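Posting for a labmate who doesn't have an account.
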Amino acid sequence: MAKSAKKAAKKAAKKAPAKKAVKKVAKKAPKKAAPKKTKRKPNEAFMKPVTPSAALAEVIGSKPMPRTQIIKSIWVHIKKNGLQDSKNRRMINADAKLKPVFGKPQVSMFELAKIVNNHVK
């Protein structure tokens, strides 16, 4: 008799209506108008033409150019001559032209801007 009472209780529990979940309506903040995307202006200090030193001029030329272009020109020289270290690609090996600029046989690519800064006026 006890078994049938338990079965009846289970059936009754299944048939009992489930409590309805109360939905909370969150108030949404009004959307702000997205700012218009404008083309970013480069910093004028980087775009000002600077004159390279004699050692640097052998690598990139003697015409005044912005610092950004000087770095790009050095990278063109590095890629063209395969001067990146094969094991650690962050290191740059100096060739005959870059040795006077770097002052040592190998530099990190992160030192490049600092080195260029010492060779421009």
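Reply:
Got it, the structure tokens are right above this. The chain has six helices and two strands.
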